[in-house]
């Protein structure tokens, strides 16, 4: 069974830049997986950041950007702010019309 | 603004069936796919499946044998049933709307605990 992998954690300084990735245990991520990214603070509803690889959801600041880097999907946070401290998940569209969440990355801003 | 609200029992006994309903307001349930996602305590998010407003479904293969989703367009609601639950099914359950290959509107989530 294919697993969608993400870094367990990242630390970034305020104002710094961090790039999170989303990969597959078998194969490469491409635009055909329509990667999307979500910010999730425990106790709150997840917030949609990016869909179809690089389209920002309404109201999401442009310091969040999505891309394909090598064989993975990527989420870059530029100019990190304190309230960016959260869990981040990617989702990939797979064959047979199923969706798989990544393992999640905990981002700390300090 | 589309809003979703989950409702249902917060406590379910082992081996019984978990039942949740998601009420959609601020928009029609028609012409969209709707999904259920869950997060067990201390773990990541897991996609359970989706249902189209017409009733067609697709489920996570790991849960497929126990999951049933249904939709009621007259009440703008869709539902989840998960049978033969165990403690491993204890989680916060979210309902959400599918936009373009992504989940664009989410409910606040509801905690369901499986315990005798």
Keywords:
heterodimer; A: 110 residues; mainly beta; seven-stranded mixed β-sheet; four-stranded antiparallel β-sheet; B: 116 residues; 11 strands; globular
Explain the overall architecture.
The complex is a heterodimer of chains A (about 110) and B (about 120). With about 110 residues, chain A is mainly beta. Chain A is built from no helices and eleven strands. By secondary structure, chain B is an all-beta fold. Chain B contains no helices and eleven strands. In chain B, a hairpin with a 4-residue loop joins strand 9 and strand 10. Chain B is globular, with a radius of gyration of 13 Å. The mean pLDDT of chain B is about 95. Chains A and B meet through strand 4, strand 5, strand 9 and strand 10 of A and strand 5 and strand 10 of B.
Main sheet of chain B?
7 strands, mixed
Largest sheet of chain A: 7 strands, mixed
Instruction: Work out the oligomeric state of the chains in this entry.
Output: heterodimer
Helix content range of the residues of chain A, please? under 10%
What is the residue-mean pLDDT of chain B, rounded to a whole number?
Answer: 96
How far the N terminus sits from the C terminus of chain B, by CA atoms, comes to: 39 Å
Q: Which class best fits the helix and strand makeup of chain B? A: mainly beta
Number of continuous helical runs of chain A: 0
Report the order of strands and helices of chain A.
EEEEEEEEEEE
Which regions of chain A are unreliable across 5 or more consecutive residues at pLDDT < 50? Answer: none
Put simply, the count of helices of chain B is 0
Portion in beta strands of chain B: over 45%
Order of helices and strands of chain B: EEEEEEEEEEE
């Amino acid at each position: 069974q294919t697993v969608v992998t993400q870094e367990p954690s990242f630390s970034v300084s305020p104002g710094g830049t961090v790039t999170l990735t989303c990969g597959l245990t078998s194969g490469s991520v491409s635009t055909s997986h329509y990667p999307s990214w979500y910010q999730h603070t425990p106790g709150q509803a997840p917030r949609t950041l990016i869909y179809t690889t690089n389209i920002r959801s309404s109201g999401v600041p442009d310091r969040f950007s999505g891309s394909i880097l090598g064989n993975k999907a990527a989420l870059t946070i530029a100019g990190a702010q304190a309230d960016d401290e959260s869990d981040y998940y990617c989702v990939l569209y797979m064959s047979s019309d199923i969706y798989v969440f990544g393992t999640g990355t905990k981002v700390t801003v300090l | 603004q589309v809003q979703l609200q989950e409702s249902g029992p917060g406590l379910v006994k082992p081996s019984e069936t978990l039942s949740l309903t998601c009420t959609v307001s601020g928009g029609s349930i028609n012409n969209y796919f709707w999904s259920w996602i869950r997060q067990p305590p201390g773990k990541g998010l897991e996609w359970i499946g989706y249902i189209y407003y017409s009733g067609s479904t697709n489920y996570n293969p790991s849960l497929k044998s126990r999951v049933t989703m249904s939709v009621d367009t007259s009440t703008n609601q869709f539902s989840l049933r998960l049978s033969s639950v165990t403690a491993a099914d204890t989680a916060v359950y979210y309902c959400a709307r599918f936009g373009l290959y992504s989940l664009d509107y989410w409910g606040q989530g509801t905690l369901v605990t499986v315990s005798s």
